[in-house]
Design goal:
Largest sheet: 3 strands, antiparallel
Number of strands: 5
Strand order of the largest sheet: 2-1-5
Shape: flat
CATH topology of one domain: Fusion Protein Consisting Of Minor Coat Protein, Glycine Rich Linker, Tola, And A His Tag, Chain: A, Domain 2
Structural class: alpha+beta
Distance between the termini: 138 Å
Strand content: 5-15%
Length: 241
């Protein structure tokens, strides 16, 4: 059966081309609409720049001051007359005698000069000394360890007996009190260089007083010579509230 219409009269035969062209036109118009920019004339108006005429400053002409020339120097003074005096004073010449001796001169013998040896005050720690200081009453003990123990016990008994334990309460202190005392037993057995540290200066003073009352001891010996021996003693006591 033959169609009634010709292919030229068919409207839908080029619809795909028309659609593609229309779509391209719409995309172009959309792109132009998006990228289109407008500017405010008031924002870009740079105006006009006006420049005034340069002012010419008139510089006044000043006259140069003419200073008068300096006065001429005074004429040179006449030279003084120098009198020549004849040298009539006789000068005595100093004769330097020779210090060399002759064979006939007797030589005086010089007496022997005695140089006194100064004994150094050597300190040896209590822990390593060969013979420890001996406290009175510890002479019969044998060995350093026994004499050390006897000395420590005797000093503790002496301090407990002489120390004023009521002083802490009088000073307003309470609880356990500790006093660190350091002193030296010199080569003569005397107590020297007493130092104390305590919570109160009154306790330090009392500790120095008591340690200063320790009796004279037999000095410590190192290699057969008397030496100074430092000794430290902690004093602990409880204050009764």
């Amino acid at each position: 059966m033959e169609p009634k219409k010709t292919t030229k009269a068919d409207v839908g035969r080029n619809s795909s081309i028309y659609f593609a062209v229309g779509l391209a036109l719409m995309l172009l118009l959309t792109n132009l609409a998006i990228n289109y920019k407008t500017y405010d004339k008031a924002a870009i108006d740079i105006g006009q720049l006006t420049m005034d005429e340069e002012l010419e400053e008139e510089i006044p002409i000043t006259d140069q001051l003419k200073t008068p020339p300096p006065p001429p120097p005074p004429p040179p003074a006449a030279p003084e007359v120098i009198e020549v005096v004849e040298d009539e004073v006789e000068v005595e010449e100093t004769v330097i005698e020779s210090s060399e001796t002759s064979q006939e001169e007797e030589i005086v013998e010089v007496e022997e000069v005695v140089v006194e040896e100064v004994e150094e005050d050597i300190e040896v720690p209590f822990a390593v000394i060969e013979n420890v200081p001996v406290f009175p009453g510890c002479e019969k003990e044998k060995g350093n360890n026994a004499k050390k123990a006897c000395m420590s016990e005797k000093i503790s008994q002496f301090v407990n007996k002489k120390f004023n334990t009521d002083l802490a309460s009088e000073l307003g202190l309470s609880g356990r009190q500790r006093i660190n005392v350091i002193f030296k037993i010199d080569k003569n057995g005397e107590i020297t260089n007493i130092m104390a540290r305590a919570p109160h200066p009154g306790l330090e003073k009392e500790a120095k007083r008591v340690i200063g009352m320790l009796p004279k001891m037999k000095p410590g010996m190192q290699r057969g010579k008397a030496v100074t021996v430092p000794y430290s003693l902690p004093i602990l006591f409880q204050v009764q509230d």
